[in-house]
Amino acid sequence: MSKMINILLLIMCLVINSTSYRDHGMQSGLKDEDLELERQLNILNKSPIKSFHIKSGYIVDCIDINKQPAFDHPLLKNHKLQRKPIFERNITERRIQNSSEKSRFILETVRCPQGTQGTVPIRRTTKNDLIQGKYLFNAENLTQNSALNHFARLNLKHVSAPYYGASGTTSVWNPKVYKGQSSSGNLYVLNGEGDNLNKISIGWHVSPLLYNNGETHLYSFWASGKNGCFNMLCKGFIQVDRTFYLGSHISKTSTYGGDIYEVRLQISKDNTGNWWLKVRDKDIGYFPAALFSILYEADQVGWGGYTVTPAGTTSPAMGSGYYPDEDVTHASYFKFIKYLNIIREHYDPFPFMVDSYNDAPKCYGLTNYEDKRKDLGYFFQFGGPGGNCRS
User: Quick one: signal sequence residues (predicted)?
Assistant: First the structure.
């Protein structure tokens, strides 16, 4: 009996020690992860010259233009700040006039002080931003198995590449999106695929995980293989404009059958190899060429909508939440879409260059009206209500 009791006591000690060791290991792992997040925050959140508490509830810091996070990236150690795109010749763009004064793009902006060398606005990053941003990056980069992604987009074929940029005017909406989901309208340039995907996109999106609200925000995404992020959640993008910034809240969006708000967007590669983002008429900043492994030029450019939802859930609305019907006040659209060639001239796509891709026709639609609405340039609509897209 005594021997049996001793054996039982020994087993209990082993179980307790094993549990204690496992718990200690978990705590140690969590502590290491927490320390890594703190380290990233210290790099991303620089000492501000001035800060703005935005009405929507976040903080924007004005940072010395030469001390922003991108310059801590090891690939940009010797990078020299570029304040505007450099082209061999001046590029003249035909200005696209909105159909009414109510079609203005309404964005929450700040005005950072000039300072000695100039300061730029950067939305302050929180620990939660980093955690949620990593999940969404993996979902956007198609490496998150627990997420479902759907597209309704128009893109230009590889056969007509290379491309040196893309532009277009899109209507801005606020589709209903639940936590864990996102819905966007964007344009993009890319090269490669899989683990060697190089991509830049810019547009508007609703992403409760990223912003802790259901509002619409201006955003950008970049990836070079497994490196990259949304907005300024990692080192890379170099901000140069003093007022427009990534992650900013769009305070007014379009309404079905009512006022339409829209924005002109552009991604272009200049002669130094850097990829510039333009919002409306402002070059807000650029992604240095050194960040990318193969994005010397783009072998595909595209425009349209994109949604993400956790596996096992129904997909959110895309665009306005309504299917295309040619009425610009009903469904989300891109108009005056153009690609940039090697000498950075803007061209309308030729029909043979264009592919339409909609991987969830039960949830979303995409209709190309390029022959019907000459007043809107190359024009198409996309979007729909979402739902169970695979049933």
Answer: 1-20
